[in-house]
Amino acid sequence: MATCEVCGNDYDMAFEVHTQGVVHVFDSFECAISRMAPVCEHCGCRIVGHGAEYDGRWFCCAHCARQEGATRIVDREVTGAGMR
Fold first, then answer.
1. What percentage of the chain has pLDDT greater than the value 70?
2. Nearest partner of 54 among 46, 63, 45, judged by Cα
3. Is 79 left (phi over 0), alpha (psi -120 to 50) or beta?
4. Are 37 and 59 in contact (CB under 8 A)?
5. How far is CA 35 from CA 29, 31, 46, in A?
6. Domain extents in the chain
7. What pTM did the predictor assign?
8. Do 19 and 8 contact (CB within 8 A), yes or no?
9. What is the pairing mode between strands 22-26 and 52-54?
């Protein structure tokens, strides 16, 4: 069994995440996200999806990036024919 590095649970179905030469052990995706997912620099939520990068900073969505000064980041493109 392995022990989750976040909650300390000793769990027979723990899993490893290998990144940048470091191995992390978690017992759930919840613990993995709480340890590894970046934090939006505007609202503070964890970025679980793609996120948006502006000026070297990470945001959870285009709205948060715009609140911090981004002008060209959009969630989707709107054309004369509608959403794309």
1. 96
2. 63
3. beta
4. no
5. 10, 6, 10
6. 1-36, 38-76
7. 0.76
8. no
9. unpaired
